[in-house]
Specification:
alpha+beta
Length: about 250
């Protein structure tokens, strides 16, 4: 069995699930962390997980039990731990008895499915571009989209940070001169779906993420939280097949 690779001290604390790397660095600098019985104040100190003994506030560091939650993020909530301006965040909807972080983000005006966990390896599998985890959104466009515009979305559109990958796009209905569609992408660029609609001459009026990989939002209420099942965790941990246009 291969030996565990050395990691920086701040990453050791973060992977143990006791806090973010930013919080870990702050705790280390303040003298709350010791390695092999000696206080260390350098967050970048390299640690051998197999040989070095790390303690936090005088107690041996132990990895927290892995937690996986699904949250239906409401519109108007930030995907961040806190906000200097006092705006609501997703952490207002979660238990505060453990440290969890979001897998990816949803912007302030977007609602829908968000995975919260303390498993950094699991999060890496979901967010790394090589794994191409599909994210599906229900979109209400500001205009009626014709077949040519939908085909451009399927084929990939040029954005300022490069062309998008092919996407699966399904027209759901036309209502009041506007198109409601479902779009599935395998990237996680900032505000990507909104920018894709703008690239074909429209805008997003409403955006809801309804699926991540095989996970569907189902009957989870807005603002609701539930644990992921072991089967759901396993399904998202498997390699994904690339989504193609249709």
């Amino acid at each position: 069995m291969a030996a565990a690779a050395p990691k920086t001290l701040d990453r050791i604390l973060s992977k143990a699930g006791v806090g973010s790397r930013t919080e870990a660095r702050r705790w280390i600098v303040s003298g709350r962390v010791a390695v092999n019985g000696r206080t260390v104040v350098d967050p970048s100190r390299w640690i051998d997980p197999k040989r070095d003994r790390v303690s936090f506030d005088g107690r041996p560091l132990r990895s927290a039990e892995k937690t996986y939650l699904l949250l239906y993020k409401p519109k108007g909530y930030l995907t961040t731990y806190d906000d200097p301006g006092g705006r609501k965040t997703v952490y207002d909807l979660l238990p505060r008895d453990r440290y969890l972080f979001p897998v990816g983000r949803l912007d302030l005006e977007t609602s829908g499915l968000l995975v919260m966990t303390n498993d950094s390896d699991f999060a890496e599998r979901l967010t790394h571009p090589a794994h191409e985890t599909a994210k599906t959104y229900l979109v209400k466009a500001s205009t009626r989209l014709d077949d040519m515009q939908l085909e451009r979305l399927r084929s990939g559109v040029p954005l300022d940070d490069g062309p998008t990958r092919p996407a699966r796009v399904v027209r759901i209905r036309e209502t009041g001169g506007r198109t409601v569609l479902e779009i599935t992408i395998t990237e996680g660029r900032n505000r990507q779906v909104r920018r894709m609609l703008e690239a074909v001459g429209s805008k997003v009026l409403k955006l809801v993420r309804v699926a991540i990989g095989s996970l569907r939002i189902g009957d989870l209420p807005i603002g609701g939280v539930r644990p992921m099942t072991p089967a759901e965790v396993r399904a998202l941990s498997r390699p994904k097949r690339r989504t193609t246009s249709s």
